[in-house]
Amino acid sequence: MSLMLGGWTALAAGEPFQPEIDAEPHSYFQREPTDPFTRRMADLGTDRMPLDRTGEGAFLKSLLQALGIPAESQLVVFSNTSLQLSLINPSNPRALYFSDDLYLGYVPGGKIEVATVDAELGAVFYIFDVPRGDAPVRVERARRCMNCHANEDTFHVPGLTVKSVAPGPGGGSLDAFRKEMTGHGVPLAERLGGWHVTGAGGFDGHLGNRMGKLYQGELTWTPLPPGERFSWSRYPVGTSDLLAHLVHEHQVGFVNRLVRAQYRARALRHAAPDGLGPEAKRVLDAEAAELVRYILFADEAPLPPEGLEGDAGFKKAFAANRRSVGEDSLKDFELRTRLFRYRCSYLIYTPQFAGLDPEIRDRVVKGMKAALKPGAGSADFSYLGDVEKEKIREILRRTLPDFEK
């Protein structure tokens, strides 16, 4: 038996799901987002959220502070893989900043881009000019972003992307890597093409900090050290730290999987108003199982053999909102062999996870409980070990509402 899911047919959980996002039941552009940024964006530049208008850089810094996005999260990309591609090149790279659930892009001389994650709609994109003088901040919802943010790289739902390309001398892409892949399972050797990377020590097993050249069908690489073609003074901080890149990658993978699960659950409910049948429930079981694996870092790519240190400023900013049980938190880094000491994503505290369809969220929580049961559970999670499992369970019992219900 087939299921009609927003205009596409899926026979089982593993088959393609490509919803028509602007049709019922999703109505992506017809529905008003309810995420925290959308609710507050009218305050930008007003007395309720004053911003520094003395210059472009000052405006950016004050905007980041007002939105709770740490400047230390800065990631710098010189390939022109963005809506403002005509402005982006090795001499004028784009910077990206992020918090747990908000993303901001900045190109010197260009517009400000904001991506927020709405629990129902997924990633929502806004764009606006840096205001001149006393002019108001005029934020508009960006529609063209969906050309890249609702395709195979995001599971065909409104999500986030991280490109890795071989950039030519002007920043244009000569080749692309890690296609249709996001998240902490992407091998490090396929990441960061077109990006600058700092704080990597002697590790160069990635595609960052280099420029490509294509001649007679053969691709060669030339080093492009951070700051060689541009001045760091144009940006709030002088880093594009490897640790921040890895954390950002984890978040992108989480968002895309969460949004796909939300869209799939909504499509199934819409197709079966009288209640979900056995096949629909199997589809949801599979979606939830994949989310559980991702949340618990089942397929995390290993860190560089020597581990990494991480920028001190980023680590401090990242930990500012940690939820702790005693001295322990899901935001504690490990950084010798893996990202986190306790392998359970801190993003379960976000409004997006709280707003998951109950059919999915209940399955995910139950799956996490089963996976974290010491001395039992699937062999898929044996890498955690009983001590780590029990510590994660204790943290979740104390910090995640309804975990023990």
Model description:
Strand 11 and strand 12 form a beta hairpin. The chain has a domain of 141 residues. The N terminus is likely disordered. By secondary structure, it is an alpha+beta fold. The strands form 5 sheets. It has a 6-stranded antiparallel β-sheet, sandwiched between helices.
Give short descriptive properties of this protein.
405 residues; alpha+beta; 6-stranded antiparallel beta sheet; 9 helices; globular
Question: What's the short story on this structure?
Answer:
This protein has a domain at 259-399.
Shape: globular
| Helix percentage range | 25-40%
Order of helices and strands: EEHHEEEEEEHEEEEHHHEEHHH
Strand content: 5-15%
How would the blueprint of this fold be written?
Elements: E1 3-5, E2 8-10, H1 36-40, H2 56-67, E3 75-77, E4 94-98, E5 102-106, E6 112-118, E7 122-128, E8 140-141, H3 146-149, E9 165-167, E10 173-176, E11 210-215, E12 218-223, H4 242-271, H5 278-295, H6 312-318, E13 324-325, E14 328-329, H7 351-354, H8 358-371, H9 385-399
Antiparallel strand pairs: 1-2, 3-4, 4-5, 5-6, 6-7, 7-8, 9-10, 11-12, 13-14
Helix pairs in contact: 4-5, 5-8
